[in-house]
Fold this sequence. Notes:
Layout: H1 13-41, E1 54-55, E2 66-67, E3 69-83, E4 95-112, E5 115-128, E6 133-147, E7 152-163, E8 181-195, E9 198-211, H2 216-225, E10 227-239, E11 244-257, E12 264-276, E13 281-294, E14 299-312, E15 316-327, E16 336-349, E17 354-368, E18 375-391, E19 396-409, E20 416-428
Amino acid sequence: MIFPCRIRGCRNHVLVLRFALFFAACFLAPVGEAMAQYAAGSTSEAGAAGGGRFTSEAGAGGGGRQVPLGITAGVDLGYDDHVLGSNATTSASGQGSFSVRENLVLTYDRSSQGTDVHLTGVGSFTQFVNVGTNDKDVSLTLGFTHNFSTRLSFRADLFTAYQTEPNFQSNVGPENVRAPHFYTDAIFSVTYRWLPRVSTSTSYTFRPVKYEQTTPTTTTIGLAQNRVEHTFAEGLHFSLTARTGLVVEYRYLIVDYDSAPRDSTTHFALVGFDHHLTEHLQINVLGGSSFRSFKDDGNSIDPYAEVGINYQGSNHSLNWLTTYGVEQPTQTLAMGTTTFRTGLNATYRLTSRLNARAAVYYYNSDNQGSSGTTSAGLQDGLQVTLGLNYTINKRWAVNADYAYSAQFSSGATGGYSRNHYFAGVTYRY
Length: 429
C-alpha cells in the first residue's frame, strides 16, 4: 500500500527540495549497486539443508551459494483477562477469554563484499474464542548496510507493521484502543569519515501512520491520527578519545495530517556524547531544544533529551532508551503532547537450552490544548512482558510468556489493566 505524501506550506519547499536532491544522489547509488551485486550473486535453488538453512547450486558441479533462510512456525495457547469485542475503546469491564495464536517467522541473512542484509518477517493470527474476536498482526524488519569504502557507508533500517493491539513502544496512536492500523519507521542514512576523528551523518526518516476506518470508532481514530512524518537530520561526530565521541545534530521534522488540523514543523538543535564505559557497555546522551510551529495554532519551544544504554555480554544483553520531548498527541482534543518515554529490553541465557527475556515500556504524557496554554489531560501507560524459551533440539522448542499492560488517564478516555498468560511450541524447518 502506498500512501500519498502531502507537505503543505511554501515555507517548507526550499529546504525539503535541497534535502531531496542530496538524498537522491547519495541513496540511489548504494541501493543500485547492492541490487546489482545481489543479482550477480543469486543462483537457482534446489534442495535444502538441515537446521532451517536452504542451499542452492547453479548448474552441475556445484559452485552455488547458500541462502541463509530460516522458517519457524508455532502455536500458543493462553488466557487474557481483559479482551474487547471488536475495535472498541478499552474499559474496566473487558471480558476474559482463552486465546489461540498461530505464528510464522521468516529470517534471511546475507553478507558479501561489504554488504549486509538482515530480514525478519513475522505473521500471527490470534483468536479470542470466548468473545468472538481476533487479531491479525504482520511485521517486517529490514537492516541493510553497504560500505563503499573505508570512508563512505550507507545504511537503511526499516520496520513496518500492521497490527490491532495498541503500541506502547513508540508514539503511534492511542494506547487504550484496539483498532487495526498500519505504521512504518524507515531510516536511510549516509555516513562519511572526513578525517580520522571527524565524520558526518545525513539521514532521512519516513513515518506514515494509518488507522483503518471501517467502524465508527476506528473512523474517529483515523480522522484524528492518520498522518505522515518526515525527518531530515545532519550530524557531526568528533572522536575525542578512543572511547568518547562528541556529537552535534540538527533535525527538521514535518508532520502532515490527513484530516486533523495539527500540521506542524519542528527544528531540533542537539548536542551530546557517546562513551564506551567498558568493552561491552556503551552510553549515548543527546539533548537540546525543539522549536515547533503549528500551521494553524502558534509556536512552542520545548526541551528534548535522549539517553541510550547498550550492553552486550557473552550470554546476556540489555538495551535501554529514554526520551523526553514533544510528540504527536493521542487524544482527539489535544494539539500536542510532551512525553517522557522509556523502554528496556533484556535477554539472559540461563543455560545452553534455557533463555529468559524481559521488556518494560513506560510513558507519561501531558497533552496540551490550543497554543500549548491549557492541559488536555495526563496519560500514563505501562507494559511489561516476561518470557522463557527452552530448546528441546535443533528443531523443537517450547515457551512460556506473561504480558501485563495498563493505561491511566485524567482525561475523558478511560483507563484499563490487562494480563495475558500463554505458552506454546515452535518448530524450525
